[in-house]
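Aim 2 progress. For Peptide/nickel transport system permease protein, the working sequence is reproduced below.
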Amino acid sequence: MTKYILRRILGWALMIVLATNLTYFLASAFLDPRANYLQRRPPVPEFAVDANLTRFNLNDKEPILHRWWDWITAIVLHWNWGASPEGASVNDQVATRIWVSAEFVLGATVLTALIGIALGVFTASRQYKASDRILQQVSVVTLNIPTPVMALAAVVAGIALNNQLGRTVLFVAGSGSVGTRGFLPGLLDGVQHLILPTVTLVVTGYSGYHFLQRALLLDNIGADYVRTARAKGLTKATAIRRHALPTSIIPVATSIAFSIPGIFTGAVIAETIFGWEGMGRYFVTTISKNDIHGAVAVAAFGSVVTAIGAVLSDVVVGILDPRVRVS
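Predicted C-alpha cells for this construct:
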C-alpha cells in the first residue's frame, strides 16, 4: 500500500509539472498584458510599456522560450512565481488567499459531505417511507437553488437576526473584523464571519452527495452478499453498516476528493457576495487583468489540490476496500 501511494505521489508530481508548464504557454498565448496599458489616459509611451513588461518578464516582444526559461528558473531557484502586469507579487497574493479559501471552503466541504452521506444512508434504509420521500423532496429543492440566491437569502436572514437581537451576531461581509486581537476574540470573530458562507455552500451542495449515496447504497442493499448476511441472522441496520455501506461509500469518497479543487476555485460567486478574497476571486482577477503569472499560479494550485484529493482518495479506498491493500 505504501509503495502504491508513493508511486501515485510521484506520478501526480510529474503531472503537476507538465500541467503548470503547459498552462504557462497557453496563458502566454491567450492573455495580453500589453492591453492593460492601452486604455490609460494619458497614453503610456510604448518604450515605457516595454520597460514595465520586460521588468516583470511579460514582454511579448521577447521570445516565449526566453520568458519561460526565466520564469521557471526563478521558481526552481527562488520559489518566485513572478509578478502581475502592475507589479504585484504572485507569491504574496497566493500565500494570503490560500488560507482565506481554506477557511472558506474546507469546513463547508466537510459538513456538506457528512450531511449528504448521512441523509443518503438514512433515506436508503427507509426507502419509499414518508421520511425518505420528504427528505428527497427537500434535497430536490435545495439542489435547484442557485448559489447567488441562497447567498442573498443568507445575508437577508443574517441582517434580520442582527436587527432582532439588537447587535451584530452574524457578519455578512469579509473574513474578519479590523482591530480584533487575541486568540479567543479572533476565533469568535472568525466563526461569526464564517457561519453564513458555510450555510450557503452546505445548503446548495449536500444534495448531490445525498442522492449519490442513496442510489449506491440501494444497489448494494439488494446485492446477494447483503441478503446472505441478513439470512444468517443480521438485522437490516447491521447488514447495511457492516457490508453494504463500506462498498457503497467508496465512489462517494472518490467524488468528494476530486471535488475539492473545483470548490476552491469555483466558489467565486459566494466569495464575491460575502466579500472574501480567496482563490476563486483571484482566478477571475488574473484573467480579467491579463495576469499570466497569476493565472499559472492558480492553475498550479488547482493541480496540487487535485493531486492531494486523488492521493487522499486512494488512501480512503485502500482503507475501505481490502482488495486494494492486497493488490
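The longest helix spans residues 183-221. This observation will guide construct design in the next reporting period.
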